[in-house]
Amino acid sequence: MEVQEITEKLKGLIETYVEDKAAFANINAETHLIEDLKINSAHLVDIILDAEEVFDIEIDDESAEKMLTVQAAVDVVAQKLAE
Amino acid sequence: MIGNDIISLAEVLPHQQALRPGFCDKVCLPEELQPLTTYFSREICIWALWAAKESAYKVYRQAGGPALFAPKKNTFLLHSIHNSQLKGITTTPNGRYHSRILLQTEYIMAESWSANLDQYQIAHKVMAIPNKPYALQSASLKEKVMDWVAQNLGMHAESLSISKSSIGMPYLKLGNKRLDLSLSLSHHGHFGLCSIWVKKNSPFLG
To answer: Which of 47-76 (A) contact B at CB < 8 A?
Structure first.
């Protein structure tokens, strides 16, 4: 799967949990899921679980630790898809 | 140093978020959960642990720990239960912190702190805030916190402000001077929580 497709699918997952739509409108690779999008940290678990379902991957704890920005999340998913 | 967290049960229980397959495995270890499930439902126990972990994570950050999302690296060990209050120690990558969790019918709150309470005291206040939007929640909580602090310190709320440190931790200022007390803020749903950590000779009465 291309990085662009991974990015768009992840953005779709993330948007579900973003209450501040204006913040989401400015989303980019460096956007921090909690600090910039104000996503409740418990929903970060949901995003990880959603990503596992959508991409049919397993995200271990060490990889999940890194998923704080959009780019980091894309990188983790891409890595898991390549394994 | 102090950290807190509050969870509105009206926000999480209807969706059974904590009971989602895989959620618990991402959040806590079996040895954390098992002692609590003797007393409370699994769902409540998961949220109680989450609140403790979040509160301890805030202390971990104030103690210099880098940002990371690793709930299972903040492990809560239960020491005692009295009525709806759980006490224990949360171990983080950079230290062990005292934690207490309070289970109420509408919310769960937790506080963690970095030293014993011989020389310090903790005051907290749960406040009703608007449920939406996020910006209004945050502003409403800060306004109520400043009113509360001003009332306790005998000053005008207008002279107070809340700023954030370089790592995003809130602190109180009186004019341009940072107040000598540790502050933690949380909000979720209709609930806001402010926890204040001060030396016992502080005029803050809570």
So the answer is: 48-49, 52, 61, 64-65, 67-68
Taking the CA of residue B187 and the nearest CA in chain A, the distance in Å comes to 10
User: For the domain A3-82, what is the CATH code?
Assistant: 1.10.1200.10
Question: Which CATH number covers residue B18?
Answer: 3.90.470.20
Tell whether A42 lies on the interface with B, counting CB pairs under 8 A. yes
Instruction: Identify the band that residue B45 occupies on the pLDDT scale cut at 50, 70 and 90.
Output: very high
B69 vs A contacts (CB less than 8 Å): 41, 44, 64-65, 67-68
Flag if B69 and A68 touch (Cβ within 8 Å). Answer: yes
Q: Identify whether residues B104 and B136 lie together within a single domain.
A: no
Average pLDDT over residues B67-90: 95
Q: What angle do CA B8, B76, B183 make, to 5 degrees?
A: 60
Q: Identify whether residues B107 and B132 lie together within a single domain.
A: no
- Positive or negative, the CA dihedral A70, A17, A40, B150 is positive
pTM greater than 0.90 (yes/no)? yes
- Identify whether B186 is part of a domain: yes
Helices marked H in chain B — which ranges? 9-12, 23-27, 30-37, 42-62, 134-153
Interface predicted TM-score (ipTM)? 0.92
